[in-house]
Specification:
This protein is of the alpha/beta class and 298 residues long. 43% of the residues lie in helices and 13% in strands. The protein contains twelve helices and nine strands. The protein is globular, with a radius of gyration of 17 Å. The model has no long low-confidence stretch (mean pLDDT 96). The chain binds 3-hydroxy-3-methylglutaryl-coenzyme A (HMG) and magnesium ion. The site of magnesium ion has 6 residues, from loops. The site of 3-hydroxy-3-methylglutaryl-coenzyme A has 24 residues, from helix 4, helix 5 and strand 6.
Length: 298
């Protein structure tokens, strides 16, 4: 059967806003994060401590976290390296996420490192984070296909993912960065991790909806026992360094599916839709989410 409950890991404020052309004022971001928490989302990734020249949209990371104050200390933030970790530690944050690549090309484009060099960058970052008592999540990108390299072998994804977990990450989020994955591929990938000793309880699934497969892929993940799903309010998102990446799976679409399946998630759909509709107004474009459009009236 399906899991009784799942955890939705909300990435709209990070994966969503990192890719928006419009610069969103920090006070709007703060309200966005607060509204996502108020809608019942249990985990709201807030921002990234990456190089501000690489992702100018999130250059206000420190200011955002300062404004959130005590309400922000348990929200995860992305850190690629020790410099990013230092910035998070200065603010007293407790949850960080590193983000690796399953492919050589994307490691270079996203991190300015070779495939092997990325681990050398992450190792001291995770060591120091754990020594300071922080929880570390690891993302691995291009798990289902890479815009430059094409098909990505499952063994290569498992090798990259287990290396990230072995550094000391508590959870591995498998990213379909460009949204090309399909359900059978999800089943095979989760099974390959299980065969390598990584159970579904240590995995999260991170789908982008480029090819409209995200919900179908979630169902494959549920059947395989995965209970954490990344999603983005209103379907915002995409990676600025991944050609052809579009929005993440919309949190509203995920919530609609889970409610229909009777899988508990704890999110108030009406307030989430209101939040995404409000954010769409700030961004000057309609949400791509079918559920937001059906329920939002905007
Ligand atoms: P680099 O240029 O190789 O950095 O970039 P460096 O280590 O050579 O340092 C150069 C300068 O940058 C130094 O300053 C550092 O201090 C500074 P200088 O001494 O010259 O004055 N610097 C920093 N400043 C602020 N914060 C930092 C930082 N690090 C170095 N953290 C780097 C390497 C990793 C920094 C760069 O490539 C980078 O910032 N990349 C981030 C790209 C990114 O954010 N991509 C989007 C997130 S990934 C994603 O969206 C996928 C995901 O959603 C899952 C999926 O869908 O697959 C997670
Ligand atoms: Mg992503």
């Amino acid at each position: 059967g399906l899991p009784a409950a799942v955890t939705i890991y909300e990435v709209g404020a990070r994966d969503g806003l990192q890719n928006e052309k419009a610069l969103v004022p920090v006070e709007v971001k703060e309200e966005f994060v607060r509204r996502l928490l108020a809608a019942g989302l249990p985990i709201v990734e807030a921002t990234s401590f990456v190089h501000p020249r690489w992702v100018p949209q999130l250059a206000d990371a420190a200011e955002l976290m300062t404004r959130l104050g005590p309400d922000g200390v348990d929200l995860p933030v992305l850190v690629p390296n020790e410099r990013g970790l230092d910035r998070a530690l200065e603010l007293g944050l407790r949850h960080v996420a590193i983000f690796g690549s399953a492919t050589e090309t994307f490691a270079r484009k996203n991190l300015n490192r070779s495939f092997d060099e990325q681990f050398a960058m992450f190792e001291p970052t995770v060591d120091r984070a754990r020594a300071a008592g922080l929880d570390v999540r690891a993302y691995v990108s291009m798990c289902f296909g890479d815009p430059w390299e094409g098909a990505v072998p499952i063994e290569q994804v498992v090798a990259a993912g287990t290396r990230l977990l072995d550094l000391g990450a508590s959870q591995l989020s498998l990213g379909d960065t460009i949204g090309v994955g399909t359900a059978g591929h999800v089943t095979a990938l989760v099974a390959a991790f299980a065969a390598a000793g990584v159970g579904a309880d240590r995995l999260a699934l991170h789908f982008h909806d480029t090819y409209g497969q995200a919900l179908s892929n979630v169902q494959a993940g549920l059947r395989a026992g995965v209970t954490t799903y990344d999603a983005s309010a209103g379907g915002l998102g995409g990676c600025p360094y991944a050609e052809s990446a579009t929005g993440n799976l919309a949190t509203e679409d995920l919530v609609w599916l889970l409610t229909g399946l009777g899988v508990e998630h704890g999110v108030d759909l009406a307030s989430l839709v209101a939040t995404s509709t409000w954010m769409a107004g700030h961004l000057g474009r309609e949400s791509p989410s079918a559920v937001v459009r059906a329920l939002g009236g905007a």
